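Hi R.,

Quick one: here's the Regulator of protease activity HflC (Stomatin/prohibitin superfamily) sequence you asked about.
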Amino acid sequence: MSRQTKEVKMAVAPGVIMLLLLLAMIVGGMAWFFWGIARDNALGLVGLLVTTLGIIGLPGLFIVQPNQAVVATLFGRYVGSQRDNGWYWTNPFTSRKRLSLRIRNFNSERLKVNDADGNPIEIAAVVVWRIVDSAKAVFDVEDYSQFVAIQSETALRHLASRYPYDNSPEFELSLRGNADEVAAALQVELEGRLTHAGVEVLEARLTHLAYAPEIAGAMLQRQQANAIIAARQKIVEGAVGMVQMALLQLSAQDIVQLDEERKAQMVSNLLVVLTSERGTQPVVNAGSLY
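And here's the predicted structure, written out as tokens:
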């Protein structure tokens, strides 16, 4: 494994002070040079040298904008990074590269993958990230933006294969039912993958989740069936409770005495009335109870 680069602070000097010093060297050196030439004095060459050094030093001035970093190398060797915004001067022979430290968003494409149950689904996510180590971002990966995109999609595919789309007895979590837990798991996996590029993941969220078109219809029918079954179970539980309450109150208040056969008939009639989807038509018995 290649050795990772660690960010260090660049050696810099205040830009204003260095500009005044370099201008003084240029102007003073030129004056010294012409004074020496006028007197046929070899010391005029020293003035020319001072002027040349002042001109050579000017490219060492650079500006760092807010939320920006400047990474410097000297003859192929990393010498440091400057994050503090302002006007600075450094070795003019260094090569300097600027990169943004602002927060960025990556919106993934809709990926077609299989969930933990083997069902094809479509999934997409948004990743909020920023650079926290400029040296790693520049030197340890080829292109940090592309690295974030590829690793984010890879992590999203892996995440989708770990959880089922909907609730399943074999798994505690699901993609649809546990959005916060799934987002936290995605962020943890991304942080492990992107730390090599000096990138910090601030947030990761799913933006799209659906069954693939070829099974969407069948899965919708299954969801509707599950909902109907759950509703029926709730209705039956309520109906049984109401029937039990009716029998207890009739017995407690001594309104009517029912044998077991009549109780069974009453229970059957009440359950039909309470669980029927349509309104029932009662038949009034104007004669005796039996």
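The chain has a mean pLDDT of 82.

Cheers,
M.
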